[in-house]
Amino acid sequence: MPVIACRALGPIDISIDGVPAPPELLWRKHLALLLYLLRSPRRTRGREHLIGLLWPDSAEPKARQSLNEALRILRSTCGAETVDTETADLVRLGDQFSLDIEEFESAYAAQQWAQAAGLAVGEFAEGFGVKGATDLEDWLDAERRHFRAKGVEALTHQAELLLAQGATDAATALAERALTLDPLSERAARSVMRSRILSGDRRGATECGQQFAERIKTELGVEASAELLHLGKVAGAATPEPRRGRIASQAERTPFLGREAELTLLVETWQACTATRRAALAIVTGDAGSGISRLLEELAARVTLDGGSVAGLRAVDADQDQEASLVSGLATGGLHDLPGVATASPAALSAFAQRFPGWAERYAGAAQGAALDLSLALADVIGATADERPLLLLLDDAHRLDASSLRMLPGLLRAASGLPVMILLGVSGDVLREELDELRRLVGQVPGTTITIGALPTRALRELAATLLPTYSDVELDRLVRRVSTDSAGLALLAVEILRAVSRGMELDTGGKAWPASAQTLDQTLPTDLPDAVIAALRINAKRRLSKSALAVLAAAAVAPDRVSPELLAHATELDQRVVDEALDELEWQRWLVAEGRGYSFVARLVRRVVSRDLLTPGQRRRLLARIEGWPGEHLG
Based on CB atoms within 10 Å of each CB, which residue in 2, 126, 136, 521 is the most buried? Predict the structure, then answer.
């Protein structure tokens, strides 16, 4: 018994036992008859109905003859048993036919979005029509509208699932297919914009939004929605500017690989927090350089796209000696810019305005009022902004916060228990602190999750290598991945640096030993203990990727305190402040430094050590230290 496979999503395609159908079956009315019967209830229609549909302008005898000839062709090409005409005036197709639409609808109903998206490859019966058959054309139009809407939904659902895993390239491809399927679908346009923003193509996202807004204005006479305009605003923040109030940059991006499950878990925790309006706590732990900051940034980017608010900080060692460093970090980390802050109590605003100049400028007069205790004021402000929009508090390198700040977090969770607030901590290394242990024990008592990330899996390293070195053969990639895995210890930060240096001409030797030393973390490993490939990669990437002024600022930052202000860097380098600001943007964009409200710090302390030791002569280091020590302003680190 033959198996006849029919594909109707996209250009119509028919095969019989895996062989393309013969030409006579593909004549337009024969094909229309087959497709219409396949989509009919129980695959059955009356002869009179079929004649009126396909031969409306023919005399009845000729029309009946045409129908009989079409049925003969179906039998002769597909098999006599595939067409049943024994019942008077009825035509029924047998069970030998498979139709992609039926598979699609089954997957769609079960919300199996990956399978449904794989089948939604184009318009229903794309490019097909029968001249003069008006009723058939009306039916085709109705089917196209129906499957266009379902196809867009399936494609965008799967794109969102891929975005939650960090698979931005695959998500972008599906979103763009959805927009091609229906150029007037705002859902598809928003999906394209989200995917492009998260993949780093903000200009493409902006262009997509502008073109879509113009299209619906011209063709439908409607304006773009607030959601689309929000995405356009986020995409428009592409050009790096001095970003001292930001927790993280949209920096030069390598593919987000090897952490898909962890990102999905964080996204699910955030979605549960916002859906139930219950405060949540998430803690991400791993070695320095393993990709904690990148994972946190990926979630923050998605929260921003969804219309949520993000405020955060990145702690340094000096914060452990500063009382309530959490408050000062958040106060200068963009908290005062968030919607809803102005609705906090006057006493809470007064507490911040009396201590932080930016708040006094924004909330004039607040500094003169009675003030709350800072911890109570922070809880009040967090509640005010979370009441306006869901809030993510992102605390990177949280193990470097002072003890009072860490002890403040359980109280903040209790105060925000009925609000969509998620506190997300990044903790590097195996840090033994009682306050962190208490926070870990809280997970379970309050909604949330704990995640430990380790070395990048070989699969992710290979995909990364293939992306950065597209001309390498499979054999060359396998050899390179084995070497990089040894030299980087599977740490994302160092693997990326080595692969980038290889793409710029660095050659790896055939040696290499396992490291870090037993029972040592990356933070505990001194630069002299690093494989030569790591040090060479950092040197090459600094000297070949950075401008002269950026190199000078990077060198000064390496000998300055852990967190440093642009003003101190301008003093140390003797460069104009505007030049320093541009250099800092370059360094942040290239992911050497990260910015938050209180200043700049290195992406990883080990990188700082390597730069200080290997990119500076002793004389340069002495001169920079002398200028830094003579700085009359505040030393932030």
Answer: 136
Under DSSP, the state recorded for 318 is: G
Tell me which residue of 135, 202, 188, 126 sits closest to 158, measured CA to CA.
Answer: 188
Rounded Cα–Cα distance for residues 421 and 506 (Å)? 46
**CB within 8 Å of 129: residues ≥ 6 apart:** 28, 136, 137, 140
Q: Between 606 and 414, where is the model more confident?
A: 414
**CB neighbours (10 Å) of residue 476?**
12
In a 3-state reduction of DSSP, which class is residue 155?
helix
CA angle 246–252–258, rounded 5-degree value = 100
List pLDDT tens digits, range 572-593.
999 999 999 999 988 887 778 8
CA atoms within 13 A on the CB side of 16: 14
Indicate the helix (H) or strand (E) that contains 446: none
Torsion (CA) 522, 526, 531, 536 in degrees, nearest 10 = 110
Last residue of a domain, one of 140, 160, 182: 182
- Residue 101 resides in a domain: yes
Domain boundary among 452, 468, 485: 452
Whether the Cβ atoms of residue 343 and residue 384 lie closer than 8 Å to each other:
yes
Instruction: Record the tokens describing residue 46, joined without a space.
Output: 């009356």
- Examine the domain organization and report whether 127 and 42 are in the same domain: yes
Four-residue CA torsion sign, 290, 292, 298, 299: positive
- Count of helix runs (H) and strand runs (E) in the chain: 27, 14
What is the extent of the structural domain holding 369? Answer: 260-452
Name the domain count of the chain.
Answer: 3
Query: In the prediction, which pLDDT does 190 show?
Result: 95
> Residue 635's pLDDT is what?
60
CATH classification at residue 308: 3.40.50.300
Dihedral angle of Cα 108, 113, 116, 118, to the nearest 10 degrees: 180
The one-letter code for the residue type at 534 is: V
What CA–CA distances, in Å, run from 312 to 368, 382, 384, 436?
A: 27, 12, 16, 18
Burial category of 238 from C-beta neighbours within 10 Å (exposed 0-12, middle 13-18, buried 19 and up): middle
Q: Which of 245-259, 267-281, 286-300 has the highest mean pLDDT?
A: 267-281
DSSP H helices, 120-252, are: 134-164, 168-181, 186-199, 202-219, 226-235
443 assigned to some structural domain: yes
Q: Give the per-residue pLDDT at 366.
A: 67
> Does any domain span residue 211?
no
**What's the pLDDT tens digit per position in 342-377?**
899 989 988 888 888 888 888 776 667 677 888 899
Note whether 372 and 319 are same-domain residues.
yes
Most confident residue range from 43-57, 136-150, 161-175, 560-574: 136-150
CA distance 323 to 402: 6
Contact in structure between 495 and 464 (CB atoms under 8 Å) = yes
